């Protein structure tokens, strides 16, 4: 029987946290998504893994038996992935860098040229971040660094080389009733339908819906997009509005989309992120220096 390692990671997190809320936050997924994954694993194995109560989730005897092996299995698989990908990268001297859809031009040809000057014989492989993986491939070693517009608290969970700060702006269809204004208030947008990214994006979905600023007020979802092109198309078609990095107003400018600054919406910390348990390699450090030399926007730190 083959079992997706994501299901085992979800199982292990619930065992360790003892409740779905804390485990979901740790995994950067929504609670409904985590619940679905646990039930999927139970269905695959044909056993009940947890006893559910108001106090939380306690492993059943079957769950405790599985938990004895899960940690070692996942650790071994992670080690195998990292070793395999590191060996492949070293063979061709490749640095794998993730980027957010719609803003790839932040890292321009000048950035790559500067990097290859600093690291002769190396090449950069750019990969668009996957909205279905909150870590963008960092957890599995699929990429070495990723560019994120992120909330400041993420610095406690990842290493980060900060490049600057940038405002989050509202993206509205050009014919929207608020598009004629030069600046918007966050309160103006509370009742608007939003174009959301998938639930699997975890904390990123909440961040780009500005859940923190909403103070518990529910958000209306007009559409769900699975990549940047779908997201922008949904905005253009009037299915909802959205928040985006200010950079998109330059790099994805369109006559049928109005980008407007928003009072009351916190800015993003922009930087190159990598896992806490991984040291900065010479190639990674060189790419950070190249970005700082060639990428300019917002308020530099």
From TrEMBL:
Q: Name one GO molecular function term.
A: DNA-binding transcription factor activity
Gene Ontology CC terms? protein-DNA complex
The record, for CDD domains, names: PBP2_LTTR_aromatics_like
Q: Which UniProt keywords apply?
A: DNA-binding, Transcription, Transcription regulation
Cite the SUPFAM superfamilies for this sequence: Periplasmic binding protein-like II (SSF53850), Winged helix' DNA-binding domain (SSF46785)
UniProt keyword DNA-binding present: yes
Q: Give every HTH lysR-type domain span.
A: 3-60
Name of a matching Pfam family: HTH_1
Q: Does the keyword Transcription regulation apply?
A: yes
- Report the domain of life of the source organism: Bacteria
| Family listed | Belongs to the LysR transcriptional regulatory family.
Protein's UniProt name: LysR family transcriptional regulator
């Amino acid at each position: 029987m083959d079992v997706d390692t994501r299901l085992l990671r979800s199982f292990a997190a619930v065992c360790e946290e003892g409740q779905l809320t804390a485990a979901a936050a740790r995994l950067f997924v929504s609670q409904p998504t985590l619940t679905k994954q646990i039930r999927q694993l139970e269905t695959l194995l044909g056993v009940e893994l947890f006893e559910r109560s108001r106090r939380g989730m306690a492993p059943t005897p079957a769950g405790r038996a599985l938990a004895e092996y899960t940690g070692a299995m996942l650790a071994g698989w992670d080690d195998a992935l990292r070793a395999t990908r590191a060996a492949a990268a070293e063979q061709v001297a490749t640095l794998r860098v993730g980027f957010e859809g719609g803003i790839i031009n932040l890292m321009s040809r000048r950035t790559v040229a500067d990097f290859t000057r600093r690291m002769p014989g190396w090449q950069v492989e750019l990969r668009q971040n996957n909205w279905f993986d909150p870590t963008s491939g960092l957890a599995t070693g699929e990429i070495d660094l990723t560019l994120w517009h992120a909330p400041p608290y993420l610095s406690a969970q990842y290493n980060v080389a900060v490049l600057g700060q940038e405002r989050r702006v509202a993206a509205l269809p050009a014919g929207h009733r608020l598009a004629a204004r030069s600046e918007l208030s966050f309160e103006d947008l509370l009742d608007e339908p939003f174009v959301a990214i998938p639930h699997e994006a975890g904390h990123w979905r909440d961040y780009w819906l500005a859940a923190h600023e909403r103070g518990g007020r529910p958000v209306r979802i007009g559409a769900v997009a699975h990549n940047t092109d779908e997201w922008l198309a949904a905005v253009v078609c009037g299915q909802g509005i959205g928040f985006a990095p200010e950079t998109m107003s330059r790099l994805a400018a369109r006559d049928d989309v109005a980008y407007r600054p928003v009072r009351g919406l916190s800015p993003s910390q922009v930087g190159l992120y990598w896992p806490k348990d991984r040291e900065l390699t010479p190639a990674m450090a060189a790419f950070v220096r190249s970005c700082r030399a060639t990428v300019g926007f917002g308020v530099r730190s």
